[in-house]
């Protein structure tokens, strides 16, 4: 099945998948919220953290690049290569890199935490605040509590039916780990932000059936590896197969939908 195949994918393959599928299917849902609420009109420079293959960073540059210098860090050398090639092709001035920037260096910081494991969100926000100057704007976008509920309820039943040892609490831990908006505000305060604001949009993702869901690039290559990280490979296969069957048994001939609380956390560095 495709999920087994995805586990052997290289970083280069995942980078191409992200560029071809994930930007439009997933990231765009978050960046549309950013574009509505994040203003760079008073910023001389911006750092975009986790810019992926660069699509949104270059779009931001197109809007604000005449007066704002745009720098962007990519997650790895494979995404960096694609981003740099795309920037060169359209003559974008975004400066893509994978370097660690100094403290207090930017007027504004925008960070994509949409694939950051919930256990790492606090550290991720702290790093975004670290590189902002005092008074600088910091914004982080990610899913918040209430996301994936339709998936997690079926995933819990799947794991229970498969009787996988030591995994009974996996789904509950997944649910509890995704931060609420109030927890995100607390994290932002602890990291040194003031004038904190959250914007939330409810986004729906739809698939023809269970197999289409578990084999979609978003789920197979990016979400399931996070959700099932504690399982052995054979357990992942069993759970993924059963999950596809349970979705179809639950929804019959209807399509399968799940919702995500697309969330933008923003504030100013004190």
In the CATH hierarchy, what is the class?
Alpha Beta
Stretches where pLDDT is under 50 for at least 5 consecutive residues are: 1-6
The CATH architecture is 3-Layer(aba) Sandwich
For the sheet with most strands, the description reads: 7 strands, mixed
Distance between the termini: 50 Å
CATH topology (level 3) name: Rossmann fold
Task: Give the secondary structure arrangement, pairings included.
Layout: H1 2-6, H2 11-37, E1 45-49, H3 55-64, E2 69-73, H4 77-90, E3 95-97, E4 106-112, H5 121-130, E5 132-144, H6 149-162, H7 170-177, H8 181-191, E6 193-207, H9 210-215, H10 217-227, H11 233-251, E7 256-269
Parallel strand pairs: 1-2, 1-4, 2-3, 4-5
Antiparallel strand pairs: 5-7, 6-7
Helix pairs in contact: 5-8, 6-7, 6-11
Name some characteristics of this structure.
about 270 residues, alpha/beta, Rossmann fold, 7-stranded mixed sheet, 11 helices, about 25% strand, disordered N terminus
Describe the protein in words:
This protein has 270 residues and is an alpha/beta fold. The protein has one domain (2-269): Vaccinia Virus protein VP39 (Rossmann fold), CATH 3.40.50.150. Helices cover 50% and strands 23% of the residues. The chain has 11 helices and 7 strands. The protein has helices spanning 2-6, 11-37, 55-64, 77-90, 121-130, 149-162, 170-177, 181-191, 210-215, 217-227, 233-251, and strands at residues 45-49, 69-73, 95-97, 106-112, 132-144, 193-207, 256-269. The chain has a 7-stranded mixed beta sheet with strand order 3-2-1-4-5-7-6, with helices on both faces. Strand 2, helix 4 and strand 3 form a beta-alpha-beta unit. Helix 5 (121-130) packs across helix 8 and helix 6 runs antiparallel to helix 7. The longest helix is centred in the first third of the chain and has 27 residues, at 11-37. It is globular and about 55 Å long. The termini are far apart.
């Amino acid at each position: 099945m495709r999920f087994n195949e995805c586990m052997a994918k290289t970083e280069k393959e995942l980078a191409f998948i992200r560029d071809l599928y994930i930007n439009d299917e997933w990231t765009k849902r978050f960046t549309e919220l950013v574009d509505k609420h994040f203003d760079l009109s008073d910023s001389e420079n911006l750092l975009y953290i986790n810019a992926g293959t660069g699509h949104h960073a270059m779009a931001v540059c197109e809007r604000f690049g005449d007066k704002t210098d745009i720098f962007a860090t990519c997650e790895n050398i494979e995404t960096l290569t694609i981003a740099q090639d795309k920037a060169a092709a359209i003559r974008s001035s975004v400066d893509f890199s994978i370097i660690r920037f100094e403290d207090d260096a930017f007027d504004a910081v925008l960070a994509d935490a949409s694939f950051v494991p919930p256990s790492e969100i606090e550290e991720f926000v702290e790093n975004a605040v670290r590189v902002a100057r005092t008074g600088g704007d910091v914004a982080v976008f990610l899913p918040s509590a209430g996301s994936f509920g339709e998936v997690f309820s079926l995933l819990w039943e799947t794991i229970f039916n498969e009787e996988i040892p030591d995994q009974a609490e996996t789904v509950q831990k997944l649910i509890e780990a995704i931060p609420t908006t109030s927890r995100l505000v607390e994290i932002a305060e602890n990291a040194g932000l003031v004038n904190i604001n959250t914007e939330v949009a409810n986004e729906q993702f739809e698939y023809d059936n269970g197999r289409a869901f578990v084999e979609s690039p978003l789920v197979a290559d990016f979400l399931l590896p996070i959700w099932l990280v504690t399982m052995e490979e054979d357990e992942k296969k069993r759970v993924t197969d059963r999950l596809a069957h349970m979705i179809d048994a639950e929804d019959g001939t209807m399509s399968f939908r799940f919702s995500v609380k697309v969330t933008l956390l923003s504030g100013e560095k004190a």
